[in-house]
Amino acid sequence: MARRAKVGTTLTRSYVLLAACIMLFFTAGTGVVLFLQMRAQAEHFAIEDIETVEGLLAFDAKGDLVVRENYHNHIESKRVLDHYLEVLTPLGTILARNERLGTAELGERPAPDEGVGGYSPRRIRLADGTPVVLVSRFHVLDGHPILIRLALSEESAHRVVEFYAIAAALMFPLVIAAASLIARRMTSRILAPVQNIAARASQISSSNLNERIPTYGTGDEIDQLAEIFNETLTRLEESFRQLRQFTSDASHELRTPLAAIRAIGEVGLERDRTNQEYREMVGSMLEEVGRLTRLVNDLLMISRGDAGSIRLNLTSIRVMDMVRDTVALLEPLAEEKDQILEISGDRDAMTHGDPIFLRQALINVVDNAIKYSPAGAITRVRVNGNSGSAVEICVTDEGPGIAAEHTPHIFDRFYRVDAGRSRDAGGFGLGLAISQWAIGAHQGSITVSSAPGRGSTFRILLPVEEISD
Ligand code: ADP
Predict the structure, then answer these.
(1) How confident is the model at residue 58 (pLDDT cuts 50, 70, 90)?
(2) Is pLDDT above 60 for 72?
(3) Which atom of ligand 1 is nearest to the CA of 399?
(4) Distance 274 CA to ligand 1 centre (A)
(5) CATH code that applies to domain 7-158
(6) pLDDT of residue 62
(7) Ligand 1 atom with the shortest distance to the CA of 433
(8) Calpha distance 434→367 (Å, rounded)
(9) What spacing in Å lies between the alpha carbon of 361 and ligand 1's midpoint?
(10) In CATH terms, is domain 221-307 a member of 1.10.287.130?
(11) Would the CB of 317 count as within 6 Å of ligand 1?
(12) Residue 395 class from Cβ within 10 Å (0-12 exposed, 13-18 middle, 19+ buried)?
């Protein structure tokens, strides 16, 4: 809950901050542009008007310089009188000042090149503090060199900018309030589906894993999130289903030997028995305990494999040596059934893996071949080190074969084609599942090709390890 609120607040804060920055930059930028434009305009007018002033000046009969205010009665002429005007000799002696300027000064002593070949525009403040843009023009009037100085007040430009800044400052809180309102609405709209997903997800537990998070079909990131979540739920549901199935199958399998031990005990206690009979009963019980132990060991191995808690001790393995060991171990079983185990193939093929787990995987396959084949059958184990990047071990038997509808399932846990026959043979339906896990953990694979009545061939592929000379 706290995290959701935090994301919303962060988003709102960032948006408001962004809006504030944009407004500040925009206001400052436009203010500066406006101010500079007004200044440039004032400079432009000053230059324009100083030209007009040239035509308004004249020396009267007494030799004094006068400004003819009614010159052609032009609007420009009148406008000039609103500006500050000062005419002086190049040495700085004042010849005339207009009424607006009065006794104030338009700058210091003239610079030697002031107003020559240009207007020498500059900004000064009058004695009363008025900011002005000042232009100068050197001119020769009736043979007398004079310097005309004309200044335009920039107060209006300053006032406009001031007004603009005040207006912007007043607008600022309103804009921020509007931005935060919009941001809050926007974030709550964006986060609403996420909150919805979180709310639905928090209600899902192992008992209602079939429930799904609603998607809106928009295909946006939120919808993708919901879909990914749903896919995860589907996988979890399947894992839970398999786990329940496994637990139920395991309990079922455990019940059989336990029931047998109990039955043997109960029958044994019904009446007094001879020592020989007791011995036989204890023997039968131990047989069931042995079966139980094997089952528990298999279950333990599978659950440790699932939990990923098995660490493989990898080492170089000569595949043929591993095959020989396996066959030697199972030879007595084959002999019991008058069967023959044959080994052939490459002696030098090497793989890299954990010998304990790979041997167990092979034992399970060869053990099945013996278990399901009739007396006198031959089981052939062939090693092929020349099939590319893998070492191949093929276990071919002369057993009953497996029908096509069963082959995709024989590696499933507790799956038995003929449960009765398998159980009689001591199987729990876990052997091939363990083999597949162990070989898969070595990046290998195990497949079967079989047809009823034509035996089966189990093909194990393991990564090859090149022998360095
Ligand atoms: P089990 O302990 O029952 O043998 P497995 O996982 O080893 O369990 O095998 C699963 C099932 O696949 C067996 O019950 C059997 O029906 C079938 N199967 C396995 N290997 C062979 C084989 N070589 N020939 C015929 N059927 C086989």
Answers:
(1) confident
(2) no
(3) 24
(4) 40
(5) 3.30.450
(6) 87
(7) 6
(8) 13
(9) 13
(10) yes
(11) no
(12) buried
Q: Domain segments of the chain: what residues? A: 7-158, 221-307, 315-463
State the Cα–Cα distance between residues 314 and 312, nearest whole angstrom.
6
Length of the chain: 469
Determine the distance separating the centroid of ligand 1 and the alpha carbon of 243, expressed in angstroms.
Answer: 22
* 367 CA to centre of ligand 1 in angstroms: 9
Decide: 397 in ligand 1 pocket, CB within 6 A.
yes
Decide: 31 and 168 in contact? Cβ < 8 Å: yes
Pick the atom of ligand 1 nearest to 397's CA: 23
Is a pLDDT exceeding 90 seen at residue 398?
Answer: yes
Three-state secondary-structure class, residue 94: strand
What percent of the chain stands above pLDDT 90? 54
Q: Does domain 315-463 have CATH number 3.30.565.10?
A: yes
Closest CA to 459 of 423, 412, 422, 407: 407
Verify whether ligand 1 is closer than 6 Å to residue 119 (CB atom). no
The widest CA-to-CA distance across the chain, in whole angstroms, is 167
pTM for the structure as a whole = 0.65
259: CA distance to ligand 1 center in Å? 24
Strands (E) in 233-366, as ranges, are 315-318, 340-345, 350-353
